[in-house]
Structure formats: structure tokens, C-alpha cells
Queue: 3 jobs
Job 1
Amino acid sequence: MKIFLILFFIFFTHTLFAEVVKSIKFEGMVHISKSVALRMLSFEKGDDIDVEQVDKAIKKYFNQGYFNDIWAEFDNGNLTFYFKEKAIISQVALKGWKENDDDVKDTVIQLKKGTLYDEKKIEAAKKRIIEAISQEGKIDSVVEVKTTYLDNGSVKVTFIVNEGEEITIEKIDYTGVYGLDSDDFDEVIANKEHQFMGWFWGRNDGKMSLRDLEYDNLRIRDFYMQHGYLDAIVDAPFVRANFDSYTADMSYQITEGKQYTISKVTIYQVKQVIDDAKIKDVISLKKGDIFNIKRFREDSEKIKTLIADKSYAFVQVVPDLQKNKEKQTVEVVFKIMPGDKVKIRNVLVSGNTRTLDRVVRRELYLAPGDMYSLTDLKDSRNALGRLGFFDSNTIEEKRIDNHTMDLVVKVKEAPTGNIQLGGGYGSYGGLLLSIGVSDRNVWGSGINVGVKAEKSQTSKNYSFNISNPRLNDSDFSGNFSVYHSSYEYNDYTTLTDGISIGTGHRFSRHISGYIGYSYSRNDYEFGSDFNASYYGNTYYFESYSKSSMTVSMNWDSTDDYYLPREGFTLGQSFEKSGLGADADFLKSRTTFNKYIGLDEYIGFDAIFRYKARYYAIVDNGYIPLAEKFYMGGIGSIRGYESYSISPMIYDPSGTDTYSGKTIRRVGGTQTFSNNVEISFPLIPKAKMRLVTFVDWGIISDNVTKDLVANNLSRAGYGMGLEWFSPVGPIQLMFAKALNPKEGDKTSNFEFSMGQRF
């Protein structure tokens, strides 16, 4: 700090008296206003001042942290303070570590644009970066700072990171383990012993995580308590690190104690609000069982939900474990403090920059004036997720007093307009592409409008559809569509013009029904070598009309439209044709999808999915060939071309061969397929996931004569990419047919866009 007070010293050399201040000026000061700066002085215009007072004023200004330098000049009673302000940080960059992670800049570096350059803050940011890297198990990291002054006077700060080395855990020893198998501890701890081929999926790579190290002994203790060892003591691990090889050995000292069984389960309600018998019905812990802390927590949550559904929003379930060390028994006491009943005062909606408030509110099962219910709250979250309009949603409970609360619904809008793409690559058909445009939430109204102009190697489809899932915000829905399509099956092409209209009704939170009518006119096109007589009846390929009614019922308890992690869907529909038109059949479609989030079991956001479909058609007079079923492709058996798996008949003019014979595919009257999938997070920031799958299905036709194969079962497996792109959800599937047979048309790659995962 430079202080130029030459005039002061000359003045006091010639006189022993202070001089009167005639004026006070500030030069170069931006961050403090003149009025504030004047108030900070211990003197004002007209006062007598000396050098010590000016020196104190300069120090006071400097301590504000805005300036690199301050000095003062005094001339004929005119006092002027000069300020050299610190530079403003306009850019913050990371190199060598999480370069494009904005969250790291906010939470770790903590230097925002527009803040003043401060060496102390820079050093603190460096320490936080090194600490964050060390939490990832890397040591000896180095962070350098490069400061670049820009033309506008601001500063660009670049943190150049040289990441250290990861520590690999070579060996873990457990002392004092007798009642349990120490190998089972791998199920709960984060820091695991390195295994051979640890880089392979499902194997332990042994990389140390310092962030989790302090909790691993608590996880082991919790594992003991899940097996009744209530007195177990697990010391913090002792780590012996070799910094030459960046390896480490670890050891745990464990005192197990005795295993406890449950002598009694007691319910104690501070205020009786529900029959004890109803509470005991939801409790899984029973007398004589080995105590399990995990089941104890689950039972506590069940009790809390049961009481909270009676409007006791602030209920507390306090655990009390009364141990008898001599008998190694424990009495489990659930102490329930229900509090008071709570009413909803107001429901506030935020974050819906596009979707109308009423579209959000009609999915909520709690409204102003309602009594609180925890189940209603959870179901409301799931209902918002099933809309598919939002990336995320939360409902916060804002306590007003002991009797009232506000609910704050926060949503984050997701793109609902899709450019729908689909296609694939097959060993026979080559590249297939299709395109369409739709919006499931047009103008934020919840109305679904779609226009499709699809063209691929096997299909053409031009359509318009509009549907409203909540007509006039009621439980009724409505839809209307017109379309023209052509689908090229393996042996012929169908041309269809049609119209459909229908209405539905939501009977409960999870159950909905639908009834609709459709009419279509259908024609066939064949190649020059096609011979319809080999199919048994030529009328199978005559132009026909179809007039049909469809009735369906659906159950949906999932928590999200595109990427559910819990719940299941079950659907059953019946289509009856023959209402004044040529086609006459009864078609049944049954679908079932189950979703299980695996986070609580394996520690990361994996999802298990099981999907099954059973379709059947009954001949009531005339089943056109195009109305039968075919398998292959996304939605049934991946690894095979779409519509390529089918019963076949002998046809000398056919183009495909099977067991040395030329054949045609004629479709089946029954088909069953199922898929098992596991979806893993790949790049969470980019909303990318990896999925692995195994598909199996069977198709049959017990009516068609001269079948080469009366029953067909096929399987496929593979992996794919699921991506929530800015233009909608995309699936890229790489599949391989499992033991394909002669004549099968396999497909190695398929993709789709806009579909539910």
C-alpha cells in the first residue's frame, strides 16, 4: 500500500497545528458510493485533521476488500483519496479436470463472473479442487492458476489441474469376524479389494474413495445389525498406503457381540389415532425373528405412511430397542407421536414456463382445503411424472403451523415436441428411415397433436391425430385420427386409408378405460411372381374394408412416462370387426411392463425392466392376412427385421428359402414375446444411459395349412444407447439374433425416437 502524504509532512514541519479540511474528493472509486465513503470517515468538511486520521481512513477503505491500492493527497485544505480497484473476474475456466462441468465451478471453485479478483479466494479455490480430487481417491494432485488480463480490464482465471494418482486397495483384512462371512461385506462397502480383471464390468477395480472411507465401517455395522448383532462395534479402517506404487492395505477391527432375537413388538401411541391391530398388520418384524434393522426402518416408514394418511402430516415414529443382554433378546417398541391433523392451506405451482397451471393442478390429489395424506402426495408426484411433460418434479411441504401447510409444486419443463425418427439396418433390407412431427403438450395445454409423413424402404405413412387426455379438465379423454399408410411385408404390400375416433375415462388413479370406432379400406399390391393360390384361399388378398369397435382397460402405476423406475403397466384390449364391413374377427392384445429401480440394492441408478405381450386373433368369418401378427424388430424380438418372423407356407414363386424350399410368410394368429432389460447410467449429465437386453418370443398359426414350421420361437440379445436428446428420447439398438435359422432375416442395428423406454 502506497501512501503519499508529502504535503502533510511539510505542513507539520512548519506548524504544530492541524489544518482545516475545505473539501473531500474521491478518484477511481467504483464499488463504494461517495455518500457511503463519506460516512465511513471519522471527520468531515470543516474539521481539523492530522496525518493519523487520514491514515486510519485509508486502512478502513482498504479493509473493504475492493482495492489493490489507496493513497491520499492534501493541497490547500483539499483532501483527495485515490483508489486502484481490483480487477473483475469475467471468465473462469478449468483445464485437465471436469472441464465442462458447470456444477464443479459452482460448488468447488465458487468464483462467479463479476466478482473481484482476490488472491485469498484463488488460493481457497485451489485447495477445494485438490480436496475434491482427493475424495475421488487421487493423491499428489497439483493445481496451477493462470491469470489473463483482457482488453476490457477484466480478468480470465484458468485453473490448470494435474490430477494425481489413484490408490488401489490390494488387500483388506477383517479381525474379529466369526458370526458372518466377511466376503458379504462387499455388498455394502464402497472401498473394496482389487480383483483380478477388475476393469471388467461386475468386478472390483479396488479404487479408493476417500469420500466413502469414513462411512464404510458404519455400513459394516449396519450390515451386522441387519443380522441381529446389536452390540457390534466396527472401528474405522486402518490404512497403510505405499506412495511409491500408489497401493494400500486396509484392516478393520470388529467386535461382533451376540445375536439378538425379538422378544416382543410393542406399539405405543402417545395419542391414540388408529387401532393398534391395523398398525401390526403392516409390520413385518415378528416375535422370535432375528432382529433386522433394515426391516425395522421399513416398518417405521410403513407406520408413518399409515398415520400420515390420516392427515397427521408431522407424525414421528421414534424407535426404542430395549435389549436384554443376558438373554440376547430385544423388545422392539414403536413410539408414535402423531401430532395434530393438518389441512392444506394453499398449493403453489412454479417452474411451469410452458405448461398451464390447470394442467399441473388436475394431476394433483391434494388441493386447498383438503386434509393431508402422504399417499396422495406420493401419487401426485407419480402422476406428474407419467405426463411426460417434465424432466423432474418435486412437491415441498411448507409448514405454516401445527394445523396447516402449503404445498409447493416445482417442475422443470421437458421438450414435448418430437421429431420422431425410426429405422434400422438389416442384412436383407439395408437402411430404413422414417420421420414424423408431434407435440404431446401443444401450447402447454396437455393436448397431443401429431402429423406424420413417414417414408422408409418398407413403409409409407401419412397421418394426422389429435387427442386430449382430459376433456374440459374432466376424467374423460377423446381422440381423432385420419391416415393413409402402406406397409411392405416380406411378400406383399398393404395399402390402407382409415379414420378412427374414440373416448376414454379414468376410473381411478391407475385404471383407465377406452372405447373407440375405426373404419378403413385396405388393398394389396404384389410382385409379378406372386401366386395367391398357394395360400389356400385367394380372397385373403382381395381388397377389403374393416369396421371395428375397440374396448380396452389399462392399469398404470409407474412414476414417469419415459423412464419409469417403479410400478407396472397392464393393458387388455379387444377389437371386434365385422360391423357392416368385410373383415370379421376378434383380436385380443395383452401387455405387461414391470419397472424396478435398483439404486437401493446396488448403489447406483440402474433400472430393471420386464416387458411381455400376448396377442391372439379369432376367425369369425374372415381374417385378412394383413390383420395377422408378425414378430421382429424393436417392440418384439430385436436382432431380426421387422415383421420377418412368421409362420410360412411353401410357394415355388417365393423369394425366400427355408429348409431348401421357397416360402412365403403369412402371419400368425397367436404371438407371445417378452424382453428383459437392465438400463445403466452412462453419462448422467448428458442424460445418456446404456441398456442390455435379452428378447424371446414365439408365434404360431394353427389354421393355415401346409406350414413349413407350425411353431416359431426366436431369441435375440444385445445392447443399446438411450438418450434424452434436445429433440426427444432416442434409442440406438445393436442386436444379434440368437441361433438364427435358415431363411431368417436378421438385423444388426435399429433406432427409434419419441418412444417410451
Job 2
Amino acid sequence: MAAPKKIHIHMFSIHGLIRGHNLELGRDADTGGQVKYVVELGRQLSLREDVEQVDLFTRLVSDKRVSEDYAAPTEAVGEKFRIVRIQCGGRKYMRKEMLWPHLDEFVDKTIKFIKREGTLPDIVHGHYPDAGYIALHLSRIFGLPFVYTGHSLGRSKLQKLMEDGMREADVVKKYKIDRRIEAEEEILASADLVVTSTQQEIDAQYGLYDNRNVPGFVVIPPGIDVETFYPFYHNMVADSERPESDIYAEASMLKEMNRFFIHPDKPLILALCRPDKRKNISGLIQAYGEDRQLQAMANLAVFAGIRKDIDAMEENERDVLTRMLLLMDKYDLYGKMAIPKKHDFELEVPVLYRIAAASRGVFVNPAMIEPFGLTLLEASATGLPFVATRDGGPLDIERNCKNGILVDPSQPSAIAAAIRTIIADEDRWERYSKNGVLNLRKHYTWQSHAATYVDRITRLASKVGATDMAEIVPTDAIGRRLLSLRSFLITDIDNTLIGEDNSHLPALVDFIKANRHCLGFGVATGRTIASAKAVLQEHGVPEPDVIVSSVGSEIYYGPRQQFGRGWATHIGHQWNREKIVSILDGLPFLRYQEADTQRPYKISYDMEPKKDRLSTIHNLLLANKCRYNLIYSHDRFLDILPYRASKGKAIRYLSYKWVIPLRQFLVCGDSGNDEELLRGEPMGVVVGNYSHEMEALRGARKVFFSGAACAGGILEGIEYYRFDGKMKAESHDDSK
């Protein structure tokens, strides 16, 4: 009996600075608990016997402001776990809200990576809506199960920011919240499974969405590394039995904090979070500052990310940190409050929890909204009781671990009272500390998280079938088929594939069908997608793998005509349709074509071929600084496209995206709008009934002029080039 197939997982978390060691948590608003979560999940999954490989995809960043680690294309984290970095939107680091225009580029380059690897994953899992968008479109292209984890949700964020007095228009401008919510709705409509940390997340947060009832949900609380976050009383053993790095980290943290405190021996109130307004750091400082009794009882240490120069930080972080300093001054907390500038997450953060626990202190998470609260688990594991917001994950954590007090974070007096209650009552502190250590190990381990996760995704993956590219057949998802192809036949439709002489069309159709196992078939046409599909069906032409329509301004994949978003994003750069139409509106020799021929990235006119008309149009558009591509064909049709768009450029894009060398494309045309398509590396065929514009290609390298018309001419070209689709695959350089 064959052994069960091991599962291959692709995870996506693109917006943070992610590496396999020394995570820079709190460096900015995008390096929070999600970074820790995906790395720990990948590491734990890779340790399982039933997992073949885990690949975590993130954005490649090469920027002097950040570590060079983030510029490595791949990073081996473990034997079966690696981080894969894909370049998109340039190489500079940017906050997550700025990445939306570049996500389709990420999709395309991930496809290239998969093609080079030669193996499809069994499942794709997106973390946060930007990565969810990427995983969604990869799942559609390859027919893979799609799993999603939101980590935080746009509608909840919008609701809270507006409650805080921010106008919706300002939220949209700063956070691109409308784009995010739109993506989240699409994700929920398509996801096979949504993983959450709590039931409250499903009910109260996903419950705000129109598509809340479409996907299946599963609650899998995250785990904790109990070997790293061990109880504080383990430090009571002889120092010789502790790692030297642990001893050094403890000494370093004590020295750092004690330079702030007049009485360092007091219990420590510890807060550890990103400098984000939603984390409500100011509420905690206000609670401490307005309670003299609490100040007498304990010191306060707030580790709000990592900073060098507050003025150089993003507005949100700068405002939070400035507010911290102002409140510290307002309440005169010098000697009682520490605000260190940095900490090493890997070595010093676990030590911080143990220092606070050894002082019989309290950990505080005063966030206004807390989807889960991973820091509460870390504190609990070390034996440190907590005070946290009565929202989201803390509800479940307190119920399971029974080691803290939940409060309304908008009430500073309630925060202060809860902290005092724990510190002043020795029996309560001991009970909470013990409960945290024991119950966390019962309810929150990465081993149990990974076991539940693998069980659920294995069920999903088993419904799809084999992912070995050698087993792919034409009925599979279009992405799987395109990965298996070695060459492509691309032809224009009107007067090339189909025309006045269709006597040879049945023979060409037979050739396409006979070689379908290794040969891709596509059309590149001036027709719209609907028109192209209709004429092909009318003449019995097989469903193309790719339709390049509207003179190269649109690409569609497979029988379902999946729209090529990556191509649309690529050609949309510096395209201003309304401006061009307005500029040309006054030219009397142009007739704007009917609405059904116009497209978002194509402007179409009728124009008779008279002297200087084309130069007049060029001069007018150039004088107005327009970026465009002008195509004139059949002495009648004038099409204006984005400067990156054309049939020829679309074919080159397909070659790049699917890693099929251009010299393994056979391209066929008959008129001026096919000229660029036929130039360069592809094998070019001009059918016998060509328009006079094609004479310019006479003598061009790798352009064959057939004697026969239409499909007969294509067959002559196939014979001339000895083209049967069985061509050796080659790889492309991905350095672009």
C-alpha cells in the first residue's frame, strides 16, 4: 500500500519584514504579531512527517534603511521550510497600504517561480488581505484550495477609526481602506477555509461582511514556544545551567530599565507592543499617571517598538511616541517609568517577561481592539499575570488560562484598579501565575495548532488531486496546463485563422487537437473578448488557452476567460484614457467607434488614410505629454492603447510570465496590427492574403510569407518551421 502523500504548502505574508531569525517585531506598524505567527507556523509545520515542504512568500526588499537579510531571494529556515522573496513595486521598503497597486506583479512573478521549481503546492494560504488577494488569484489560476487568515479586518478598523473622530475620506486616503474591504469581500466569497484564533473573531468581526456566510471557518488558537518562554522560576537554578546568552540578555535588560528607575526593586508593570494608536499605550500611561497608589506600588516599563529618531518615523508611530513622552512629562513619571528605545525580540523579550514575573509584576495589553493577543500567551507561559482588553482573543485566553483580569480599555481607572488588585493580593498573584504556566501548556501549543491545521487542509487538498506537472491534462485548471506547456501557437483571427478561404481550417483544428498535450493555442485579435469567443465557436475552433483581445489591451485565460489582472496593471501605468479622448475630440477626420468596441485600455476610431493625418495625431498627443501606442490597420482602423500595450508586447508578457521562450512561439498574422507581433524572436508567419502594410516585413529575420491564405497559410508555416509543439523548455532570467 502506497504511503500517504505529504502536503506542500505555500503561505503568503508580503507586507512585513520577515526573516527566520531575530524578528524585528515592533519595528514599525507592519511588523507585529503576524510576522511571528507565520514564521512559527511555518517552522512547526515543517517538523511534521506529513508535510513535505513549507514555502513562505514575502516581498523582497533591498533598502539601506533595513537589514540586507530582506534582500536574499530565498532563506532556508529549516530543512523543509524556506522564505521566498519576490520583488514587486521596486525594491524600497514601503508600508503595506502602498502595496495594493503592485500585487498583480507579485502574482505573475510567483507563477514564474512555480514554473521554474517544476512543482505546484497542494494549497495556498494568504495572511492579511494583500496576501489573501495574491493567494486567491493563484488558487483560481491553478485550481488549488485557498485558505485565508485575516489577522485584522478592514471593516473593524474603519469602524473604530471613525468612532475616534477620523473622517471616512481620511481613512480611505491614508489606509486605502476601501480597496482593502473590497478585497476582503472577494476573499470571503472565494476562500475554501478561513482560519481564525477565536469564535469572537468570526461572530463580531467577520460578521460585518456581506460574504460572512460563504466560506467555512475553523478556530485554531496560535501556539507558543514553551522552550523559549519558560517560567520565571527556572532562573532560580544555578547560573551555570543557563545559556550564557540568556544570562547576558537578562543583565542587559535590567541595566537598560534600571537607568530609568529610582526604586528598581518594585514590581514591574510591563507593556510590549507596536507604537500604534489602537494599542492604547496612552490609556495605560494615563491610568498609571492618575493613580498615585499604583505609582507607589510599582514601576512601569513600556516597550513600544524599536526606534532611533522619532522625527524620522511614520506619522502614526511618531504621534504615539510623542504622546508617550508628553504624558510622561505631564504626570511627572521620571524615575517611575521606563521607555527603552530598542529590544532584541529573540533573546531579550522572553527575558523581559521573566524579569516582570520575578518582580511579581503584571503584563498589560490595553489595546482597543485585539484580534488575538499573542503577547498574552508569552506572558502567561513565563508565569506573568495579565490585565487585558475585554475584546477578541483575550476573552478566550482568560477563560482557558484563568490568569488575568479583563477591563474596558477606554476606562483608565479600570486599568489601574485591575493592576493594583493583582499586585496587592499575593494569593491571587500566585494563583494567576501558576494557572498561566499550566493552562497555557494545555490549550496553546504549536504542536496542537499544527495538527489541527494539517488535518483541515489535507481534507481540502485531497479534493483537488495530483499536483505533479507531468500528470496535468488539458481539463485541469488553466494555470496547471500553462505550466506544462513547452511551446505556443498564437494567431490573429480575422483574415488569418478565419477568412474568405476556410477550406484548410478543419486540418488546422485537427493539428491543434493532436498536439494539445504539449502545445498551447491562443489568438491575438482586435476583437473584444465576447466577439472573439463567438466567432471561434461559430467556426468550430477549440477553446484557446489564451485570448489576447482588443488589439493587445486585454488577456484572458482558459475556457472560463479569467481576466489577466497582471497585464491590466502592467499596461495601466501612465494611461489616461479621458485625456486622450478629449484631446482628439476636435479632429474632424476621426470617427469615434461604437461603444461596444471601446475598452478601458483601448480607444478606437475609423479614419481614412490621407497624408499627414497620423503625424497630426502623434504631434497632438506628444505635445500634451501623453504616453500611448498608436496602431493603424486595414487603411481604416485606428486604435490607441497604453504605451506598454500591443499584441506583440502581450505575447512577450506571456513568455515572461509562464517561462516559455519567445523562440518557441509560432505567431501568425495578416495586417498592420500584427506587425510587432511578428518581429523579433518568435517564428513569424504572414498568411498569403496579407495586407500591403506587411511588405515592411519582407526579408525580416524569422518571418515566413506563406503562399496559401488564412488557415492554409498557417499550416504552410507550421511545415516550414517543422513546428509540432514538442520543443525543449528553457528557463528565463527573473532579474527583471
Job 3
Amino acid sequence: MEAWDIIVIGDGPAALRASANAAKAGAKVLMMSSDSLGAGNTAAIDGIAAPLKESTTKSHRDDTIRAGGFLCDQDIVSQRVAEASRQVDLLERWGVIFRRDQDGIPLVRRAAGHTLPRLAGAGDALIRETQQVLEEQCMKNGVVRRGDQVPLQLVHTDEQVHGLISLDMSTGAVNALQAKCVIIADGGYEGAWTGVSIGLGADLAMRTGLALRDLEFTSWTPLAVSGTNVVLPIGMLSDGATLHHSNGNPIDVEDFADTTTLANATTSQGVVLDARNMGESEAWWDQTSEILTTRLGINMARQTIPVSAQVSSTLGGIATDEFGRAISGKWSRWFTGLYAAGDSACSGLHGAGMVAGNRLLDALAGGAAAGEHAANYAAKVEFSGRAALETHLGVAEADLDFDMAGAEEGPVQRAGPLFAKLSEIMNSQVGISRDESGLQTALEELNKLAKSADKMHLDDNTRLFNSNLLESLRLKAGIRLAKATVQSALSRTESRGAHQRADFAELDSEQMHHTLVDIEGEISTLAIRKGVSGTWVLTPDA
């Protein structure tokens, strides 16, 4: 049985940052991804927000809290934005080539949700370059990285982590991996709406009995190309691209409204993005231009682009504190040895909505905090739970064999149509505007979909590189997370940030708390953490 100080699940910026930081601190780190190595996070990232030209972090902090519907944990916000300039500096030192201004420092632009210019980036090359330099940091610090490793079960005793059961799709073996700490950083579950990949980590945690936080909130982008799965970076709006109705009239929103407001404004039919007047900035979006040309036949230098609102990332997830520790029910209780970072976590930075650039900031700062704390913790404790791991290994193998047996009776079900049905349910009933009737309908349909998924047919009954099996696991995880999302949305009877209830259109000051939901659908609450020195940094009437 392999034993590691820390196992990190994921391969995007948060996972890479956590792994490199933990290894640098002396921990023996295994980083595992259910995809091939290097796939990382290919989502449209809109830059990183940092107050590089501001004397204080106050404006960045206040913009974040307002966009978050005052549901942010304000001490976490203060901490994250204070680290933002440092994260930009580190990326630059490691090799990311940022756009620069006349003073030779990274260029910052005003972007969605910000009152001042603070979005730094490198056009559509930012996420590729960030992935590359963070991979190099992992290599430099001796992180062991493995692809095609599917986490099946998180093994624990009384909320004390012992390790993981995982499927190695390159050999077909199911393995028990002992670990002092596990960091979940494999992304969110926006694929429940979009049909793209769904991270397994949040579901893995929920199946231990851990309640997830604020699942009712999702971040929306107004720049999904209509009728496709192509999403354009919202940073293009900072470089001169504009949103219009099909008749040429501009979308009626205030300058640099947050992404939720922009998404609400693009729910009507016939909205287009005009990127024909970006000037010299157009060169920073060459790959986006190439994708539009080769895949869709659109020349963005000459044509407008039809766009609509789409979920871009989930904001809820595993509740964490400032160190990335998974919180169980209340702030004073830690699911010992379990951490989360990036989109898998609900760190408290975003609250009920997100401003441009804070997604990458949270991934980097949150990953760094989780990696460092986990390494320090692992240095002080011994390995545990070997017998429990061996027991769960046998159970996991039996469960896997049962799942691969396929449908024994009734109509054959396949992953593709079931994924399409999941997306249909979530987009039609759990979209930008929601109400009790639609949410109850969604819950009923998701329960039916879960039964169909249990009878799924797998064309391949081997364990070697079985993509059908992986999609089946992701589908089932997505359905469980979708059900928890609906239950969380039903419990919040108000409209706040990205959660808009047609039947409860007003904001309710009595619901200034985080929602917790477990795998059984039981709802509880978690208090919002106050600002520095126990006082609110910003209040709704400020």
C-alpha cells in the first residue's frame, strides 16, 4: 500500500499551486487527475484581479463584497485581496508574460464588477501560461503527478482522513492510497448545466456525510456563443468589445456591471458581441479568434457574435477556512486532514456572486494556503487507518464491478442522452430565474434521472482507459450535486446575487447566512464570518 503525506486531487491552477507549495514545505506529495496530465482547466479565464495601482486594497475588497451580495466571509476577502499583488508577482517571476503598461508593470484594466482598473492578464494565453509555469513549479519541487487516476472513495473514521481508494485507468487496478491529508481541487460541477466535465471531488466529500455550502449560487457569463459550447473570456469587454441587441442598440447596463447583471441582460434573444473595434488589443485574443473561425466560421474582426448567458462556474462547494481546511457544520470543527481549494471549495471569497479575476485569484491564493497548512500538519502526525483502507478497497472493487455490469433489465441507458437530460433540467428549472414550482419539478426529474443512471449501459466492461466508466461516474456525481443544489435553492427564499427567485424577489436580511446541505438533502446553516477585529468591513447600506 502506497503512503503519501498529501494527496491532491486535480490538475488545474489550484491543484498545482497546492501541490507545489506542499512539496516545497517538505511534504511527500502525490497529485492525481482523472484526466490526462496537462489537461488542466481550459475554461475561459478572465485574468487575475489585483490592486496593482491602488494605495490600499479597500476598493477591491468592497467591490468583491458588493458583488457577493454581502454573503462573503469578509475576513477571507480581506486576506485574499491582500495577497493578490503577490500572486501576480509570483506568476510573473515564474514566467507568465503579462501585458504591460508604459511604466513596465502589468497592465490593469477595469472589468466586470470592478470600480477601478485591476484586471491583469495576458489575453487568452493567460490560462495556458499559468498552467505551464505551475507545472514547472511542481517538477522543481518533486511533486509526483499521475493522470488517469479516478478517485472512488474518501476513507475516514469519525471525520479523520486516512486516504483514498482510486482506480488507475492505465493499469485497471483499484488501489488503496494512505495519506495524512487529502486536498480536493479538481474543479466545480458547472458541467451539470453545460455538459462539460464535472469534478468528482465535491461529490466525494459529500458522500462522506460532509455538508456542502452555498450550492444555490453559480456564476454566469454573458459570453457563451449561442448554440455551442464555446465560451468567450469576459476580459474581451475590457478591451473594447461591446454587447448589443441585434438591432444595434447597446445593452442597457451600467458601466462594468458585475457578471450576474450582464448575464441577466443577455437572457433575451438576439444579443450579440461586437469585437470589431478592439484595435491593438485584438492581438491578445488570437486563439479566441482562431477558435471562432475554425469551429464556427465567424470572423470576429468583421462579424458580430451571437451570445447568451450560461453558467461559467459554481460558487458553492466544500466549506473551507482561511487555511483551506474543510469545515464540518461549524467553524470550530475541522474534517481532520481534508482540504479544498479552487472551484471545489466555497472559500468565502465570492459569496453570492463573483467579480472578474477573482476566480483565478482564489485558486492561486487558496491553493497556496491549503498546500502550506497541509504540509505543516502532515509533519506533526502519523499515518492511520490502514485496516479501514483495506476494508474499503474490497467494497470499492465490488461496487465497481456492480456498476460495470450495466443494465440487467429495462431499456438500455447511455451516458450521452442522460447528460443532455441533466443539462436540460438544470437550464430550464435551475437557471437565472427560479421559483418553487420549477425547483420542485427539477427535484422530481433528477430523482427519475438518478434511477436511469443506475441502469446505465457501459459498452466497455474493462477498467483500462474506460472513458464510458469515467463519464458514468461523473454523471452520477453531477446528479447528486444537482439535487443538493435544488434543495439548497429551495431553502433560500429570497433573491440575492446570482440566486434570483421569481417568487421571492426581495432580499431578506434575515437570511444573511450560508446554506449547508448534505447528501440526504438535510439543510442547516453556517454563520458568516465577520471582518477584521470582529466587525463588518462593509454593510449593505454602505
